[in-house]
Request: fold
Amino acid sequence: MQKYIISGAAGTGKTTLINAIDNEVETMPEASRQVIMHEQLTGGEGMPWKDVERFSQLVFQKTITQLQSYFGASFCDRSLIDTVAYLKFQNKSIPEPLLSFPYQKFYHKVVFFALPWEKIYITDLQRPESFSYQKSLSNVLKETYLEYGFELIYLPFDSVENRMNFVFDKVCMPMKIK
Reply:
């Protein structure tokens, strides 16, 4: 089952939206935040602001496991395209597994994209970068999704409930089917 991606730079409300959607339909959580938290807990360097190549390998492995475990999920918080964008953003080469990955097999062509939203942006231990950094990253994310043939639908700057209704309206999915 192809998953609808909810993407965008950090701090744009993606995970809050995914958590609300998860109350209605099955979703796949964000692999990158799980990787960052594990690396921080174990003293690893696999974070995008430290060792983006290690981070990318770990996210790839975690995402492959999730794609097998969350087969029936309708939505996912980010995708492997985000990993490609993070590498591009830091001028790193893209590993072969990411270049040859069958994205269209796992991900729906439509991507819901959250633009940087300064009003809600906060930093935390897994998101230490500035808002201006996130704006620059957002541009690379958009370019990368378009380069890989995805169609972007921009999420409105609105409440979580209205964002969720916007997404469900776009995919013609009734609420409360979980």
